[in-house]
Specification:
Blueprint lengths: L15 H4 L4 H15 L5 H12 L3 H8 L6 H18 L20 H11 L4 H15 L2 H5 L2 E4 L3 E3 L15 H15 L7 E5 L5 H12 L4 E5 L8 H8 L6 E6 L11 H8 L10 E7 L9 H4 L8 H13 L3 E5 L4 H14 L6 H13 L6 H14 L1
Parallel strand pairs: 1-4, 3-6, 3-7, 4-5, 5-6
Antiparallel strand pairs: 1-2
Length: 391
């Protein structure tokens, strides 16, 4: 098949599988290797081409990202021209003499990619297929941004391969906190004004899980998470500049269990990034942080004393408080009451099809609480794990 007429998808010419430079057995070997590595199924010629179009950057996908989901009509027409050339493969009309390549079943299927494949199954024209890819680029992006829900920073974005699959419905209790969190995040994803968020409260109350669950809820709407550590706060300008390139996506920069000692200066980078720096924060970025402290910078009794070395003590106190105030939304998480703690356990067990009588639940649940880290959702989950393991 001659692909020399491609214009915006000319990167496909670098792929020898479609270039005809290797024999059919080498093509088969490479297609099977990619099918197993990428989780491709069905007609592997078609599946691999769709994967390349969806994943590898081209002028269409990069323009959509840079322009916040917008694309000119001329560029759209050129893309349709390329899709017309690729149409026989995209419609599954190119088959291999090796039947296994036409109905391949990988060891582990790529479920996310399979959704795009199913959508394309019912489309026949170049116009329909081109528009489907454009919609895919708008919703998911390309490359690692399309593949991963969460990232870490290592002098660049690095995808997290095994991100937690937790959903908001998995988090029992804290309905008011979840409502505040989802309300702010929904506004952010919809392109409306939204606030940076500080989640404050006792350990084990689901603060971090709540933030991670948001990404799973809003992934298809373009939300991604970038988790960084306190020492990486110095790199915030670089991180934000990298995220600025993906304007059709929304990013939460996530700082877990955040607090500062009075001798640590990293908080100034965070303070500047949230508000007041020379370079503005991109509109597609918010910062969410969790902490056990309402005021992120530790204040000692010495800080409050009249003979403290600081000449203007009120200024020093305001400095420690103002960082928390930079977060427009502060959500408080409190340790559950005994009744709420037992209800969390009951709900977790019920989801596993187990009903404990109230007295047994109370005795066993409270016994576990007293011998572990107190009364919270994490302790409840640990008890449920123990109970299920003993059955």
């Amino acid at each position: 098949m001659n692909l020399q007429g491609l214009i915006v998808c000319r990167n496909l010419l670098d792929e020898e599988i479609f270039g005809g430079a290797i024999d059919e057995f080498e093509i088969a070997a490479r297609l099977i290797e990619r099918a197993e590595r990428l989780g491709l199924s069905g007609n592997l010629y078609r599946a691999y081409l769709i994967y390349l179009l969806a994943h590898e950057p081209n002028l269409i996908s990069t323009t959509l990202e840079a322009q916040g989901g917008k694309i000119g009509e001329s560029l759209r027409e050129i893309f349709k021209h390329d899709v017309e050339i690729l149409l026989p493969i995209l419609r599954g009309e190119v088959w291999s003499d090796l039947k296994i390549l036409n109905l391949y079943k990988p060891t582990v299927a790529n479920k996310t990619f399979a959704e795009l494949m199913r959508r394309l199954d019912n489309l026949r024209s170049a116009d329909e297929i081109a528009d489907a890819f454009i919609e895919h680029y708008k919703n998911f992006g390309y490359g690692d941004i399309a593949t991963y829900r969460a990232f870490r920073w290592d002098n660049g974005l690095v995808g997290v391969r095994h991100f937690e699959t937790i959903r908001l419905d998995d988090l029992i209790g804290y309905a008011h906190q979840k409502e505040l969190l989802t309300g702010n995040t929904t506004a952010f994803v919809d392109g409306k004004p939204a606030n940076n968020v500080l989640l404050v409260g006792a350990r084990g109350t689901g603060k971090s899980s709540g933030v991670k669950a948001l990404v799973n809820e809003y992934y298809s709407q373009g939300l991604r998470l970038v988790q960084i550590t306190k020492p990486q706060l110095k790199a915030l300008p670089d991180i934000m500049e990298a995220l600025r390139k993906f304007l059709s996506k929304r990013f939460i920069i996530f700082l877990d269990d955040l607090s500062f000692e009075e001798s640590e200066a990293e908080y100034k980078y965070l303070k500047s990034a949230i508000e007041g720096g020379v370079e503005s924060r991109p509109e597609n970025v918010l910062i969410y942080a969790t902490s056990n402290r309402r005021h992120l910078i530790r204040e000692t009794w010495r800080d409050r004393s009249e003979d403290h070395d600081e000449l203007y003590r009120d200024d020093s106190t305001n400095e420690t408080i103002s960082l928390s105030d930079r977060f427009g939304l502060i959500i408080h998480y409190y340790a559950p009451t005994q009744a709420e703690y037992l209800e969390i356990i009951r709900s977790m067990l019920k989801r596993r099809g187990i009903e404990l009588d109230a007295e047994t639940l109370r005795i066993e649940g409270l016994r576990w609480e007293m011998s572990h880290s107190g009364r919270n959702g994490r302790t409840a989950q640990q008890f449920v794990n123990y109970y299920l393991g003993q059955r």
